[in-house]
């Protein structure tokens, strides 16, 4: 027994001995042979896949929304939206010379 093992966590004495934390729980050779699956915190492979799929979906929708929300910004229109093959011609903005104040 280590010195101080008979003391309770609050500093007083305890009527029982504390167990050392290095023990293993008993596994019967006749019981089910289970294994703990791979996990990260509370997320296992199945829940991580479900949350990842949902996160990718929300991210894609948010990105598409941001592109079309900022389509009036000339830099976004010129650098991104005009380079999309099918709808790029829609975003070509040419001002007629008679409407140009400069």
TrEMBL record:
The chain crosses the membrane at residues 50-70. Residues 1-24 are annotated as: Disordered. GO terms for biological process: mitochondrial electron transport, ubiquinol to cytochrome c. InterPro entries: Cytochrome_b-c1_su10_fun. It comes from the Eukaryota. One of its GO terms (cellular component) is mitochondrion. Keywords: Membrane, Transmembrane, Transmembrane helix. The keyword Transmembrane applies. Pfam families: QCR10. This is Cytochrome b-c1 complex subunit 10. The lineage of its organism: Eukaryota, Fungi, Dikarya, Ascomycota, Pezizomycotina.
């Amino acid at each position: 027994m280590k010195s101080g093992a008979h003391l309770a966590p609050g500093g007083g004495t305890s009527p029982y001995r504390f167990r050392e934390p290095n023990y293993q729980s008993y596994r019967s050779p006749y019981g089910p042979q289970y294994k703990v699956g791979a996990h990260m915190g509370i997320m296992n492979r199945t829940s991580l896949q479900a949350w990842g799929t949902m996160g990718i979906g929300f991210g894609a929708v948010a990105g598409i929304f941001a592109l079309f929300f900022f389509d009036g910004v000339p830099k976004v229109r010129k650098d991104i939206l005009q380079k999309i093959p099918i709808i790029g011609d829609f975003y070509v903005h040419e001002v007629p010379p008679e409407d140009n104040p400069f």
